[in-house]
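Hello forum,

I keep getting stuck at the same step: I have a sequence, I want structure tokens, and every attempt I make locally crashes halfway through. Rather than fight my setup again tonight, could one of you with a working pipeline run this one for me? It's a single chain of 510 residues.
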Amino acid sequence: MGNWKDFVKDFCTKEKNIEVLRAEAEKAFGNYGVYPRSINEVGNAIVMMARGENEKCLVVVGEDSRLQELKGNQTEENGLKVKVCPLSNEICYVIRKIFPYTNPQPHKGKNITIGLGDRLGLASPGHIRLIRDLDVFPVLAQQSIRELNLTGRTYEDVISAAAWAVFQEGYTKGYGADGDHLKTAEEVKMSLNVGMTMITLDCSEHIDNSAAHAGLSELREKYSRFTEEERERWERKYLNRDVKIGNYSFHISEEDLIRMACVYGGAIRHTLDIYHNIIAKCGRPIDFEMSIDETLTPTSPASHYFVAQELIDGGVEITSLAPRFCGEFQKGIDYIGDLKQFTDEFAVHAAIADHFGYKISVHSGSDKFKVFPVVGEKTNGRYHLKTAGTNWLEAVRVIARHKPDLYRRMHAFALEHLEDAKKYYHIGAKVENIPALETLADSELPELMNRDDSRQVMHITYGHILQAKDENGNPLFKDELYKVLYEYEEEYANALKKHIGRHLEGLGLL
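Reply #2:
Ran it on my machine without issues. Output:
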């Protein structure tokens, strides 16, 4: 890789036409390391991103008052004033003021939205290159509190990584930022304060799973704990009602109503409280998603209808809702379950979402290739799909290919810490199905990312790997891991285009 200083010397001293500069940077990226689509003009100055020896940087050639807030090292190259800035959160804030398209934005009204969670902060360039010309709105900054804690990142880091990728790739069509699987008022407030444009409220701790299988007498006792006003309202609206949604219909009996109220009543209360007291008061449009998928209880069509109707009647503007579908959506592997049952039930869920005017949301959507055609067809092209961990696995594959010793150490560490990682994620992986590392040649290591058991083990131990330290407090893997991915940046981007591209093919988008 060459030097951006040569690019400044060869072109910036004599050529200010941005399109010509971009063409030259693209033609000789290997010589200069300047990202062509990042080259922009601000008054008489040129701003661009470039590859340094160990990390990317922002290069400013010339001066403009709008760029004064950018803090960096000042130099002079061939008579031009040049400022070199790190890709920090602070510098990103300034760039986001100057280039509004680098800010996340709401996506309500967009038919197809895809959450592309990025645990390392490196995946968005590949994602952008894939969806650039498609009618798909990407939620590039998507992270849960659990993922923040496991990676040691902040929402500021997550938004900045997405914004820098957008700037690097010159992507001006908009992207979202999802505070994913938030549970408490404090988490929602924090997410809104840093600029997240989507809130996914995880109501799992307010869902009474025991009520799903309780006997009628126990249910009646639970039901009696709700206020008389709530019970009267529910009975007036739903008791012994036949509901017709499109081509589908279902009956809500007294037992159905009592059971639904007991299972989801607390989640409805929680959602109304968070929405009206925090989200609706934040002063800007927010994409709101209710998540009832992180539970043991599959969501029946009647329950979905009940929850949605209560929220809408309660004044909640829903952008998307995530039911708990039948079967298993385990991390990093394909759908497990009866595909016909899923198809039949998903069609009703999609119809309910369409009836109320929001999108159905599919969580843990990474690698669910069996169900993608169903999602694309039954929603008539209106849905939200969330992916995340599969992008980390593609990074692991690159590491296995180019730094087998590092991969072997990561793999062994993952096996040692698997039981602790299972506290955060449910998987069905069996360690005995994973070949012993000593039996594999280096050339065989990338193939482990094609096997369900080893995929899942590496998938859920990402936090342990990223935060592991030696006795002196130095990272065991993180620095070396990032160094490999920096060196093979283009390969990682192409791997993501290929892998996430398979998702989009299944959905009928490619």
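The longest helix spans residues 254-279. If your local run keeps crashing, start a new thread with the error log.
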